[in-house]
Amino acid sequence: MATLKIVTYPDPILQRKAKSVPKVTRRVRSLIDDMLETMYAAPGVGLAAPQVGIRQRVIVVDVGEGPITLVNPELIAEEGEQLGIEGCLSLPDLVGEVRRARRVVVKGRDRRGRPITVEGEDFLARALQHEIDHLNGILFIACVEDPTHIWKVSELEAMAEEEMVHI
Question: pLDDT digit string (tens) for 16-44?
Fold first, then answer.
């Protein structure tokens, strides 16, 4: 396994649609392993292949319940609504408020090429939608309803430090 370089905005690969994976091969499984290692090292909770410079429809997600790997994932159902703060490993100093479905169903293939269906609610649903957006060339900053609800992490940290009371 290897830690891969995470591509950052404005690299054009991040805004291009990823290509379908015709077959889950040893090379695809190796990519999945490398993506998981990269995501954990970052640290992050999700990663899409375009974020490591590979235009294939592969995502990995782990919101604390163990890794989920999906090849050619498709969002097949969504319900409800949630509004929350998102960040992205490819936009490392930005966070923003994004509205997403509260519950989703995603189908795809697992690391062995077998059909798999994943149901996610709340944070897992948000992470799955965010990573699938990456496969379609969509960044979270394009999903923010109000551009005034995008913040620089460094500025938020500076403001929080200024407000700290030292005893």
Answer: 999 999 999 999 999 999 999 999 999 99
User: Is the bond preceding 22 in cis, omega lying within 30 degrees of 0?
Assistant: no
Whether 131 is catalytic is yes
Nearest Cα neighbor of 51 from 145, 61, 100, 68 is: 61
Element (H, E) at 40: helix 26-41
Hey, which CATH number is domain 12-163, 3.30.70.890, 1.10.10.10, 3.90.45.10, 3.40.630.30? 3.90.45.10
Starting at the edge strand found earlier in the chain, the sheet holding 82-88 runs 82-88, 91-100, 150-152
Taking Cα atoms as reference points, which of 53, 8, 17, 15 lies closest to residue 34?
A: 53
Could you report the per-residue pLDDT of 72-116, keeping only the tens digit for each? 999 999 999 999 999 999 999 999 999 999 999 999 999 999 999
The whole-model pTM stands at: 0.94
Under DSSP, the state recorded for 16 is: S
- Which one of the listed residues 131, 157, 161, 163 is annotated catalytic? 131
Where are the domains positioned within the chain? 12-163
